[in-house]
Amino acid sequence: MKFKPNQTRTYDGEGFRRRAACLCFKNEREDEVLLVSSSRHPDQWIVPGGGMEPEEEPCGAAVREVFEEAGVKGKLGRLLGVFEHNQDRKHRTYVYVLTVTETLDAWEDSVNIGRKREWFPVEEAIKILQSHKPVHAEYLRRLQLNCSASNNGNILLPPAPPTDNTPRYSTPAAASHR
């Protein structure tokens, strides 16, 4: 299991642990996603991500976690959404899209804990994640929903009646809290 000395867990005002992650893609088509082996269960795949450090912005934490866990760098894209894990742990995870531009042969978690990484077609990744990490599978489902019904990753909502005070559009972050 991965152990990080001096790791400080950070929480938001509602008691949720602050986390960040990236869906890492081979290219702009976003049809192949990079998964990494779990530190707790090395035979299972997960989306790379982890806790935010104090004073760290979500986008910076996402890029750092991907570098540590998957050994990749890339072009950070849009915020896909903010996901809440309520079942066993109270986590609130900011999930970004990242297009990989550099892949290291050896990286921190590969050397320290033997973590592996592998590219999967999105549909296959959803099936793999569904059994043990359904929230991670939900990240990819949101991606598919956004791709088929959005413009530049922003969720478009139908116009509200004139007397309604709800927003006429929503960013992924705002939509996740409804």
Automatic annotation (TrEMBL):
Its main location: cytoplasm. Residues 16-142 form the Nudix hydrolase domain. It is found in: Cytoplasm. It holds the Pfam family NUDIX. The keyword Ligase does not apply. It comes from the Eukaryota. Its EC number is 3.6.1.52. SUPFAM superfamilies: Nudix (SSF55811). This is diphosphoinositol-polyphosphate diphosphatase. PANTHER family: DIPHOSPHOINOSITOL POLYPHOSPHATE PHOSPHOHYDROLASE (PTHR12629), DIPHOSPHOINOSITOL POLYPHOSPHATE PHOSPHOHYDROLASE 2-RELATED (PTHR12629:SF6). PROSITE patterns: NUDIX (PS51462), NUDIX_BOX (PS00893). One of its GO terms (cellular component) is nucleus. Its cofactor is Mg(2+); Mn(2+). Keywords: Cytoplasm, Hydrolase, Magnesium, Metal-binding, RNA-binding. GO terms for biological process: adenosine 5'-(hexahydrogen pentaphosphate) catabolic process; diadenosine hexaphosphate catabolic process; diadenosine pentaphosphate catabolic process; diphosphoinositol polyphosphate metabolic process. GO terms for molecular function: bis(5'-adenosyl)-hexaphosphatase activity; bis(5'-adenosyl)-pentaphosphatase activity; diphosphoinositol-polyphosphate diphosphatase activity; endopolyphosphatase activity; metal ion binding; RNA binding. Belongs to the Nudix hydrolase family. DIPP subfamily. Residues 154-178 are annotated as: Disordered. It catalyses: diphospho-myo-inositol polyphosphate + H2O = myo-inositol polyphosphate + phosphate.
